[in-house]
Design goal:
The complex is a heterodimer of chains A (115) and B (111). Chain A is mainly β and 115 residues long. Helix content of chain A is 0%, strand content 50%. The chains are: A mainly beta (115), B mainly beta (111). Chains A and B meet through strand 4, strand 5, strand 9 and strand 10 of A and strand 5, strand 6 and strand 11 of B.
Chain lengths: 115, 111
Amino acid sequence: DAGVTQSPTHLIKTRGQQVTLRCSPKSGHDTVSWYQQALGQGPQFIFQYYEEEERQRGNFPDRFSGHQFPNYSSELNVNALLLGDSALYLCASSLTGKEAQETQYFGPGTRLLVL
Amino acid sequence: AQTVTQSQPEMSVQEAETVTLSCTYDTSESDYYLFWYKQPPSRQMILVIRQEAYKQQNATENRFSVNFQKAAKSFSLKISDSQLGDAAMYFCAYEERKLIFGQGTELSVKP
C-alpha cells in the first residue's frame, strides 16, 4: 500500500518564477491538504482539496493556488516567488468520513529554495 | 481562533527513561481531534498518536501514551522506555479539518 508521495523532492528557483509541486495521496484517500513549513517552525496550513474543490484555505496570498484531479492527486502552484517562500512543502492526505475527517498522513515533502 | 502551544522548545531524556512533552490548546469547540506527530531529521512527518476529544480514555500506542485533560485543554505525550530512535522534533496538533500545529519540542535521547 503506497503512502503519500510528492515530487520533486528538491527544487531551486529564482525570485519571480513560478513553481508547481505535486502530490499523490495514500491509496483510498480522497482529501489532500498542503502545508508550508519554514525552518524551525511548525507547519502552516495553506489549503485543502476535496472533490476537486478548495474546501478550506489558510492565511496565504492568492499567489498560492492549487488543483485536485479526478484521481485525487493534487498540485500546488506558487506564482511570483519570493525569498520568503523558501520552505518545506508538505502534502497530507486523508479520507473524509461522514462525521469527521480522518487522520492526515504526510508525504516526505518538497524542499523549495528561492534565490 | 484555535491555537496550540508547546512551552518546551527542547527536552532531553536518558535512554530507557520516561519523558513527558507538554501541549496546551485553545478552542471553543467540543468535538475535535488532537495529534502528536514526530519529525526526524529527514523531516518526514510521522503520526505518533491520535486522541478524539469525545473519548475520555487516554490513547496509547505501545510506548507512547497521552494525558488528555479536556477541561484544562491540555494534551501531553509520555514516551516510556525511550530509545535512541525517538530523538526528533515532536509537534502537537489540533484538528478541525485543517491541522494547527504547535512550535514543536526537540527531543534528544542520551545513550
